[in-house]
């Protein structure tokens, strides 16, 4: 819920999430411990959001 609803000036707090969401993607799944690099663990607790986009005709 935090990932989808937390906003800063009506945009997603994370710039990568904002890019994908503004281009028609939606959050599909959270992958826990998908990024166990030092940066991934410190900034995102190892969580990676998988997004999906539906292709319009």
From TrEMBL:
GO biological process, one term: malonyl-CoA catabolic process
GO molecular function: malonyl-CoA decarboxylase activity
Pfam families: MCD
Residues in Malonyl-CoA decarboxylase C-terminal domain copies: 1-48
GO cellular component assignments: mitochondrial matrix; peroxisomal matrix
Matches recorded under PANTHER family: MALONYL-COA DECARBOXYLASE, MITOCHONDRIAL, PTHR28641
Record-given protein name: Malonyl-CoA decarboxylase
Organism: Linnemannia elongata AG-77
């Amino acid at each position: 819920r935090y990932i989808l609803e937390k906003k800063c000036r009506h945009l997603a707090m994370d710039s990568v999430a904002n890019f994908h969401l503004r281009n028609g993607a939606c959050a599909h799944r959270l992958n826990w411990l998908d990024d166990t690099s030092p940066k991934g663990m410190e900034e995102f607790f190892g969580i990676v959001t998988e997004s999906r986009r539906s292709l319009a005709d």
